[in-house]
Design brief:
single chain; 284 residues; mainly beta; six-stranded parallel beta barrel; two-stranded parallel sheet; 0% helix; elongated
Length: 284
């Protein structure tokens, strides 16, 4: 079915395009108001500007390209399915919530607090995030490649996550997660990965104090720990192969830790009965 085209006009107020299906929006401006494109199906938006709250709620099969969501377009896309967004700038907070099927390509989110909550089946490619506190909380089935993040508490309670080629400045990242694998990435922030299950880091650079504690089944392969990454692995079951040295290890659980050198090994009277076997290579 050929799409109806609406272009080069502006709308404002409440629900100007409510319930419109199979429509292409070109170079439109949505001035202050609410729910501009709510309860719609098969909508394409191209080079549009959004200045009002809640523009896309309860929508299915939406394609958004080269658009701009201003800071006033808060909580823009909620309770929707099959959302594709490319080359778009998002200054609005709380962008995505309860989405089934979300793909972002070359997207910039500049005020991404409380973004991507309770979402399922997410794919991100070349996405840049700032102000991203609590991004991805309680979301699952996430596939990321090419990602920068500035924002704390990322991925809290997320499940089934794969991240590649990321640079993350994020305190308390991956807390209480399950089934997370991170490849070829830089992660800097205190208290990485606490209380998680099945966390695997491959060829990553890791910074921040008291990293990777209270983890059930932690695996590190060929990772590098920065000097400020100290007091690691407390009460975790761990299999770790580290390039270079480790500043300090505290109260590790079962498993093994291999590194060229380990600085301090802190064991107190609450250390697990079956402590880790700490293995040093010959290059001490």
């Amino acid at each position: 079915m050929e799409k109806e085209i609406i272009k080069d006009v502006f709308f404002e107020g409440e629900r100007p395009l409510f319930g419109r299906d199979n429509v292409r929006l070109e170079r439109l401006k949505f001035y202050p108001g609410e729910s501009a494109v709510k309860e719609c199906r098969h909508v394409e938006a191209y080079r549009c500007e959004f200045w009002g709250k809640y523009p896309f709620w309860h929508n299915d099969d939406t394609r958004i390209e080269e658009c701009e969501f201003t800071v006033y377009a808060r909580a823009a896309i909620w309770y929707s399915k099959n959302i594709f967004m490319r080359r778009t700038r998002v200054d609005a907070p709380k962008m995505f919530r309860q989405i089934d099927g979300l793909r972002l390509e070359e997207v910039k989110l500049t005020t991404a607090g409380e973004c991507c909550w309770f979402c399922r089946d997410l794919t991100l490619r070349d996405v840049d995030v700032k102000g991203g506190d609590y991004i991805f909380m309680c979301s699952e089935n996430i596939d990321i490649d090419g990602f920068t993040l500035q924002g704390n508490y990322s991925f809290q309670d997320a499940r089934n996550v794969v991240v590649r080629n990321a640079r993350m400045e994020s305190k308390d990242a991956f807390w209480h997660t399950e089934n997370v694998t991170v490849y070829d990435s830089y992660i800097n922030g205190e208290y990485l990965g606490w209380y998680s299950k099945n966390l695997k880091l491959v060829n990553c650079v890791i910074g921040g104090t008291q990293a990777m504690c209270y983890i059930d089944n932690l695996v590190l392969e060929d990772c590098t720990l920065l000097p400020d990454c100290d007091l690691n692995f407390e009460y975790s079951t761990v299999q770790a192969t580290i390039k270079g040295g480790i500043t300090s290890v505290k109260n590790p659980g079962k498993g093994f830790i291999k590194a060229e050198r380990i600085g301090d090994i802190v064991l107190d009277n609450r250390c697990p009965a079956e402590s880790a076997v700490i293995t040093l290579t010959a290059n001490q």
